[in-house]
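Per-residue structure
===
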Amino acid sequence: MHNRSDQFAKNLLRDGLSLVSAAETEVEVLAATQKIDVYSVPDPAREAERARMGLLGELAAEPSLFEPFRSTPSLRQVRRCLRKQLTWHHELERRARSAAGAVVPDEDADAPSQPAVDFPALVVISPGRPETVLDAYRCEPVQAGVYHAVPGLVMRVVVLAELPRTRATLLLRLLGSGRLLREALADLAALPDDAWEKSIARPLLVHFRLGTQEPATDKEDEVSAEIRAWFEEYERNLRAEERKEGRTGAAAHAVLTVLRARGISVPDAARERILAEKDPETLERWLERASVAASLAEVLDGLS
């Protein structure tokens, strides 16, 4: 996955799943020239957070490989994903044997001393309905837009175009394009500013310039003017915040530099306090005091 839409998909899944699991991207699979897009292992301590994540949380309830596709995958492409799944399970077993200090040949998988390793699920995320895949692996619908293959494969197929337009599916629908993406962006914009979905998705959308500069082939692929305006406002605010943080950071270092030049010792706690201060007026006041103060107590407010 090399283009920005694919990179966005991996990062969105990774950052979303990191709220409730240990999530990695581009996990190398030994003995194969492939990489898992996102591998997630649920954290039992964050079960409550996972429950509020809707469909993505449900899919992350077990160790899982997430493989998002920009276009509807073929049977051959899904077979490559299944190969990753099998190879990765083999690698997990090898690691378990090594950690347990067991000496068990790879081919002796049923030996009594073989450590138990959960077989990871494979989650294939497709924008459209992959008929050949659903037929080949006898996938059955378990809910709108979600299919399970025969049990032995532990494979789930998510069809973005069939997902209901609800908050529970929003993070996954952001992986779509055209009308799907436009609707998902509208739903994201309508959420409260402190919504967890916004904290995950907005920085990535701006970073990868999705929604504002996505190539459009027809009217259906154009992001609405309302959504575009929302994106541009968010990006302006983000850049302004970054500039503000840059200025306050420079001011904090200036305070420390003046104190050091005047031979005033700054304990670690006070240094951290100065560097953490984000109010420009407070930093300006401290800088003025530092140029004439004889002690740190004369510089920092409330320091005795």
